[in-house]
Amino acid sequence: MDFTSGGGGTNELHNNQIYQCEESKPLLGEMSEGNNNTKVGAGPCKRTLHHCSSSGMRYKLLHEGDIQVCVVKHPRTFFSKILTSKFLRRWEPHHLTLTDSGLTSATPTGYMETPLSYSSIEDLQLLSWDNAPKYCVQLSSPVGTILLQAANSYLRDQWFHSLQWKKKIYKYRKVLNNPSRWDVVLKEIRALVDMALSSPLQDESIHQAPLHIISTLLAENSNLSAQDHENIIVAIAPLLENNHPPPDLCEFFCKHCRERPRSMVVIEVFTPVVQRILKHNMDFGKCPRLRLFTQEYILALNELNGGMEVVKKFVHSMHGPTGQCPHPRVLPNLVAVCLAAIYSCYEEFINSRDNSPSLKEIRNGCQQQNDRKPPMPLRLLRPEPLTPPPTTLLLLSTAPSPPQPPPPAPTNP
């Protein structure tokens, strides 16, 4: 694609494209009709369709790139005002990297001798001065104004949205790493989810970064109430419509399924997540916690009224006749989940015999070889020899022993 400054007309087609998230699948509301009177936990949680940003350009998230940099310091004297006039401004070429904490240059000299932290950026906007240089992004900081000049308008907007995303994620990470009031935390989580869903950037990390931030928050605050758990799960549900949950979040979901299997969150929120896992997962060996979460979800369904029928209806809704089912991965994934469940029933017995890693070790990451239990002695792994009948023992005891040769006579040297 040509991103030259004169290529604005060629991008009109992209301006008219509408990017819409995948519609959610039918839930299991009809599968647990008898569970309405016995449900425990929060009230019904309505899942709404969240659409991505409306028509407009889409951009790939920038992690690094070449750009022109100019710093305009705030004039304090008449002489400094003359030095910062547009006739004496100096532009420097830099290869900038957008890290998690700030902007750094591959050649730390001149304007970019020290990294520019996102926390020091007070404002970020497209340059709107009269007679301003073309294709510039303006960063305001206490030391002055930093101008970033791109080669064309598309690259300028790409830098603008990437910097804006990095700055906001940096802020949310700091706020949610030090929570004070949980009502405020919940509002910040909802704002973070809305920001990710409405971003014009296209990158895997756009949805995964908020999920990792929230999973870290949950892992470091294990004393939350069940109501807080459900509120957070409902808040992040739109991000899970088209993304697998990260491992730490899977562990949190497993805990919720075990402790509150009759919660409506299991039906309303976890059902489309498990459906997506069964349809699109390619290898549970690379992500064992997804398998554990699917297993705990099916066990939670079994806790509902008429649980076995609910499980059967869920399986039938996932997989049709073999020749007609459009999702060939569903059946192998269901078999893998069932085999893992059978293995867990005999986990301790199997581990005591062959020293294989347990599900707990797989869940927490396989431990080092020297941290595992030593294998059982070999004599416990083989059956004891059969005791001969008494008559055989009698014959063996009366049989004459063969003559022993006399010991050799000592020889004198």
Please outline what is shown here.
The chain is α+β, with helices and mostly antiparallel strands and 413 residues long. It is elongated. Helix 3 runs antiparallel to helix 4, helix 4 packs parallel to helix 6 and helix 8 crosses helix 9.
Write structural notes for this entry:
This is C-Maf inducing protein. InterPro entries: CMIP (IPR052813), PH_CMIP (IPR056429), PH_domain (IPR001849). It comes from Nothobranchius rachovii (bluefin notho). It holds the Pfam family PH_21. The chain is α+β, with helices and mostly antiparallel strands. The N terminus is likely disordered.
Number of helices: 15
What is the count of β-strands? 9
* CA-atom Rg in angstroms: 33 Å
Largest sheet: 7 strands, antiparallel
Which structural class matches the secondary elements?
alpha+beta
Oligomer: single chain
**Physical arrangement of strands within the biggest beta sheet:** 5-4-3-2-8-7-6
What portion of residues belong to β-strands? 5-15%
Q: How far from one another are the termini?
A: 103 Å
- Average pLDDT works out at 76
Helix content: 40-55%
- Overall shape: it is elongated
Q: What is the helix/strand order?
A: HEEHEEEEEEHHEHHHHHHHHHHH
Low-confidence stretches: 1-30, 32-55, 367-384, 392-399
